[in-house]
User: Which sequence fits this backbone?
């Protein structure tokens, strides 16, 4: 017997579900076609491919098009792109996650109140680029090695926000480093509840299983962090995007498998993973064990 | 040979020197006598004794007196005492350390701006009691075991200040714990530079000597923290108040002694300590080594 457990909090979060509903509505309600998303709507290539089949195309540059509807991705959009969109004839539908929008509002509020703005997150992640673009002079810190970046900041006040999908440990560790440089530090913990819940329940499950599979886009920041966090707990942790990546060798001598899916991973991929684990076990491993 | 080193930053800080000058002025300029201090002016019993000889008496309760001049201690004074003083006929001279006054101002500003106020410091230290008295509902956290105290706070915003003589490690550690409970945390690092400098140079010296002597009042919070910090580095660390506490046994097999004095320790005590170390070595230990 092989047992498969899925983390208590796993898969599509509120912001992703909302974006999927928005896209559905846009497709159904006969908005101006063609329909585009500015960058992939979420960081899940399989979902993006399914949307392509329905006529929703991810764009890298809005200058490539001059008609249709553009849906803004969950991660938010850099200010310069929003400004170009305003000047264009394109219809715009905003699917930015409300928690991301709130983080953007905090960035602006901090700057208005005289704080230097520091964003803790991945330098090149679209959410972080969009957060950074809200004000001039914001600095992004991804890890402790980048702390010297803040030396250019003048004044004694900094305000810190987080990419919504950071791990609380990285966030707190960097806040502590930043506290060495500034007398006044306003910390706005903009990590969303979905992130904390997914991380906590993945860690809890990783401690109880022989194999941990983290399922989600290889480009998904929150999925990558689930992997990093679980890898510390369970040596046999793998990050896979689809069921096809499960190898017979992964399951050898495994009795209990844990699955945790990123916030942008659809249920059907998780179900495929479960099915494939049982199939491989039944067809290839069950008999090995009996021998 | 025995070598004695004094930490680079050691002894009277700015606020203590200032208070001593104020007391001198008060004694000289013929203020209304008798002269009192509200509690010991600084946490150094020997200095307080010398002031008593000059007619400056520490008071516990201002209701015990009805004439003369009251000097407010470096640590600041609880609001209720200040209010009693205002209603009295006593002359009041304020020797509160300006860095402590600034921390008190921050406490009030935080409360005015809708923040729950948390003070990181010793529950029963006069500075902390005075800080806490500035506003209603402020909570004091001394260490991680007290974190449950903050559960009674309502709302999502807390502002944190520190007793000016805390160690940055304890402060940062508690800030991290508090961050688990609140989305918005405004951290005002009110630890004064003199504290950081004394702690850093004591730690640096402790790493280089065979024996570390921390010199200062047994009731002095900042001296106690120098002891705690150095004890982690140098096994042979002792907290002494005066030269009399140096024992021959402490110096046995010691070649290098480090001295760090608290912010309220006068130079003459440090000099006595140096002299006594050399005297004990010369008279009692030098010959032991030759044998």
Assistant:
């Amino acid at each position: 017997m092989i047992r498969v457990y899925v983390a208590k909090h796993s898969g599509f979060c509120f912001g992703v579900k909302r974006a999927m509903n928005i896209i559905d509505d846009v497709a159904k309600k006969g908005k101006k076609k063609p329909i585009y998303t500015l960058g992939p709507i979420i960081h899940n290539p399989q979902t993006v491919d399914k949307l392509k089949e329905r006529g929703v195309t991810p764009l890298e540059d809005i200058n490539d098009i001059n008609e249709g509807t553009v849906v803004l991705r969950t991660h938010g959009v850099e200010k310069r792109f929003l400004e170009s969109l305003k000047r264009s004839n394109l219809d715009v539908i905003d699917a930015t996650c409300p928690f991301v929008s709130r983080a953007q509002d905090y960035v602006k509020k901090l700057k208005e109140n005289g704080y230097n703005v520091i964003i803790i997150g991945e330098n090149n992640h679209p959410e972080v680029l969009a957060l950074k673009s809200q004000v001039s002079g914001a600095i992004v810190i991804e890890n402790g090695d980048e702390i010297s970046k803040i030396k250019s900041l003048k004044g004694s006040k900094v305000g810190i926000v987080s990419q919504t999908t950071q791990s609380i440990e990285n966030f707190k560790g960097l806040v502590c480093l930043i506290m060495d440089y500034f007398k006044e530090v306003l910390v706005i913990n903009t990590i969303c509840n979905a992130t904390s819940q997914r991380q906590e329940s993945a860690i809890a499950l990783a401690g109880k299983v022989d194999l941990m599979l983290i399922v989600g886009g290889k480009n998904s920041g929150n999925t990558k962090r689930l992997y990093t966090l679980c890898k510390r707990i369970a040596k046999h942790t793998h990050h896979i995007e689809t069921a096809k990546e499960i190898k017979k060798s992964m399951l050898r001598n495994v009795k209990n498998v844990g699955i945790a899916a990123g916030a942008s991973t659809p249920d059907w991929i998780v179900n495929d993973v479960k099915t494939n684990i049982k199939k491989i076990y039944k067809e290839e491993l069950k008999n090995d064990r009996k021998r």
In short: Residues 141 and 195 of chain A are 19 Å apart (CA to CA). Residues 99-191 of chain A form a domain with the Cobalt-precorrin-4 Transmethylase; domain 1 fold (CATH 3.40.1010.20). DSSP finds ten helices and twelve strands in chain A.
